[in-house]
Amino acid sequence: MAKVKVLIAEDDITMVSLLKTLLKMEGFDALALQADADVPLAVLNEKPDVVLLDVHLSGQSGLDILSNIRSSAETAATRVVMSSGSDVRDECVRRGANGFLMKPYMPDDLIMILKQVIQAV
Questions:
Q1: What are the contacts of 65-72 at 24+ separation with CB within 8 A?
Q2: Structural domain of residue 72, as residue ranges?
Q3: For tag attachment on the chain, is the N or C end more exposed, with fewer CB atoms within 10 Å?
Q4: Whole-angstrom distance, CA of residue 82 vs CA of residue 117
Q5: pLDDT by residue for the chain (121 residues), tens digit each?
Q6: CA dihedral 78, 25, 15, 88 (to 10 degrees)
């Protein structure tokens, strides 16, 4: 079975490094974007199984990015897990997120929600 590809859109460099290490240790194929990357374009090009998207990216709104992903026929079905230090779970789910993680979160919580989101096809 192919590795599950996780696209990481997070602007905290330390967090990106930790996430990549953790996901690779857990058997995922982890790909991190630059903080100012065009996330919807990357989703279109990379075709990840799931996107781990920070709500507050420097210079970009994760919620706007989510709306953009959902509004395109090519990317609308992409699974997206949002994360934030603020409890904006309801807003994220209302806008179409498949899951939400409140920062700081435990590695086990991340792996659990990724597996749930991936299996809920």
A1: 65/9, 65/39, 65/40, 66/92, 66/95, 66/96, 66/97, 67/95, 67/96, 68/39, 68/40, 69/39, 69/40, 69/43, 69/96, 70/95, 70/96, 72/40, 72/44
A2: 5-119
A3: N
A4: 12
A5: 579 999 999 999 999 999 999 999 999 999 999 888 999 999 999 999 999 999 999 888 999 999 999 999 999 999 999 999 999 999 999 999 999 999 999 999 999 999 999 997 5
A6: 40
Q: What is the CATH number of the domain that holds 31?
A: 3.40.50.2300
DSSP H/E element including 17: helix 13-25
Residue pointed to by tokens 């920062």: 103
Q: Which amino acid is at 2?
A: A
Q: At 75, which amino acid appears?
A: T
Cβ neighbours of 7 (radius 10 Å): 24
